């Protein structure tokens, strides 16, 4: 429960190429919008042939990656626009490589 929360974030002002931007978190840390969930939600725009490292998190060991646009590789898996990838018990760092300019959401979950 609780009162609804509303927030708008202009991504063009927040996003650094080839980096993860924390948009939402349970604590509202690092300039993110606080949510009533134990989750971290990141956004990234990755240029072709660049990598982004998803940071380790023992508190949130499960990952969901949602590719919005482009093409990514995560380990042996290739993602196309609209694809999602679940990684369970992935408490360590995870490398994501863009085979084409890509936009993606990353969910770190309990």
Tell me what you see in this structure:
The chain is mostly beta strands and 110 residues long. Strands 1, 2, 3, 4, 5, 6, 7 and 8 form an 8-stranded mixed beta sheet that branches. A hairpin with a 2-residue loop joins β5 and β6. The model has no long low-confidence stretch (mean pLDDT 94).
Brief description of this entry?
By secondary structure, this protein is mostly beta strands. The protein has one helix at about 10-15, and strands at about 20-25, 35, 40-45, 50-55, 60-75, 75-80, 85, 95-110.
Q: How are the secondary structure elements laid out?
A:
Blueprint: H1 11-14, E1 20-25, E2 33-34, E3 39-46, E4 51-54, E5 62-74, E6 77-79, E7 84-87, E8 94-109
Parallel strand pairs: 1-2
Antiparallel strand pairs: 1-3, 3-8, 4-8, 5-6, 5-7, 5-8
Notable features of this structure?
single chain; 110 residues; mainly beta; 8-stranded mixed sheet; 4% helix
- Element order: H for helix, E for strand: HEEEEEEEE
* Secondary structure tally, helices: 1
Provide the structure class.
Answer: mainly beta
User: How would you sum up the major sheet?
Assistant: 8 strands, mixed
What is the alpha-carbon Rg in Å?
14 Å
What is the number of E strands?
8
Give the low-pLDDT segments: none
């Amino acid at each position: 429960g609780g009162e609804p929360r509303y927030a708008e974030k202009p991504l063009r002002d927040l996003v650094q190429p080839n980096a993860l931007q924390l948009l939402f978190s349970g604590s509202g840390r690092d300039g993110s919008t606080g949510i009533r969930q134990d989750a971290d939600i990141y956004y990234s725009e990755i240029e072709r042939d660049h990598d982004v490292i998803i940071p380790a998190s023992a508190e949130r060991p499960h990952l969901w990656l949602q590719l919005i646009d482009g093409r990514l590789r995560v380990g042996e898996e290739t993602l196309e626009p609209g694809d999602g990838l679940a990684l369970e018990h992935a408490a360590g760092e995870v490398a994501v490589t863009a085979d084409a300019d890509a936009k993606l959401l990353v969910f770190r979950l309990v």
